# Entry
Amino acid sequence: MGKGKHKHRQHGTERTTMAERADPHDLYQRSVQDVETEINFVDEVYEELRDRPARSLREDFSGTAGTSCEWVGRREDNVAWAVDLDETTLEWGRQHNLSKLSPDALARVHLIHGDVLTATTPGMDILLAMNFSYWIFKTRDELRSYFEAARSNLDDDGILFLDCFGGYEAYQEMKESRKCDGFKYIWDQAEYNPITGDMTCKIHFRFPDASRINDAFTYHWRLWSLPELRELLVEAGFSQVDVYWEGDDEDDPDEGSGEYEATLQGEADAGWIVYIVAQK
Ligand SMILES: C[S@@+](CC[C@H](N)C(=O)[O-])C[C@H]1O[C@@H](n2cnc3c(N)ncnc32)[C@H](O)[C@@H]1O
# Structure
C-alpha cells in the first residue's frame, strides 16, 4: 500500500503534504479505472452475442468494487457479486462506492471476501477479470484452473471478459507518466525476466507540491501472450474465444478509436490493450 513521503517544514511548523492527505484507492480509481467504458463494452457485447441484455455480473479481483456498483446502477434488475481477497480494500469500497448507491441498488450488490479460485456464486451472465489481475497466476496449470473456476461460475450461456496488454514496449523496463486531475500517475514496468516471463509493475503518484507516493500498488505478474491465453481458455472448456482489437482513430492512426471489434488480425504495435471474450 502507498506510503506518504516527506514532510515540508514551513516557518518551523510541520504541514502535511499532498501525498499524506491523498488516498491511494481514490487515486487509483481516478487514474486507472474507467468503469463506465468497461461496462459499456461488456453490456454491448453480451447483448450482441446473446440477443438479450445481461442481468448478473461477477467481478473477480474486484478491489473496491467500483465496476459492480456501476453495473447495479445501470438497470434496476441488474445484480452483481464482487470477489476480492483483501478485506481492507473491500471495506474501502463499502465506505466510498457502495455508500453512494440507492438502497435498492445497494441490495443488489454482494461483496465476497474470498479467493477467486474457490468463491462460488450463482451462474452468472458475465464474469469480469480486469486490469490484468489474473496475471498473478504464473503457470499454465494455475491459470487454466482459474479459467475452469471462472467457467463453472457462469450460466450455460455466460461470457468471461478479460483484458490483456502487450506490444514490444511491454517487454521493456520503463516508466511512463500521465497527468490526472490534481496529480501525476506513473506506470512503472520495474522488472521483466524473459526466461520466466515474470514481471513486476508498480504504480506511483506525484503531486504538485513535489510530494509523492512511491509503490502505491505493486503487481507480481507473468506477462502472458494472446496465443497462450486463447489456448488455455479453450483447454479450460470455453467454446469460443475472441480477441477484440481497438480500431484506429479516423483523424490520427496512432490513436485508438475506443471501438473494439473481434478479429484474428492484430498489429505489431508498440503497446496495445485488448479485451478477450470467452463464451462458455
Ligand atoms: C489490480 S487490483 C484489480 C482492481 C480492479 N479489478 C480493476 O479493474 O482495477 C487486484 C486485486 O486483486 C485482489 N486479489 C489478488 N489475488 C486474489 C485472489 N486469488 N482472489 C481474489 N482477489 C485477489 C487484490 O486484493 C486486489 O484488490
Confidence is low (pLDDT under 50) at residues 1-9.
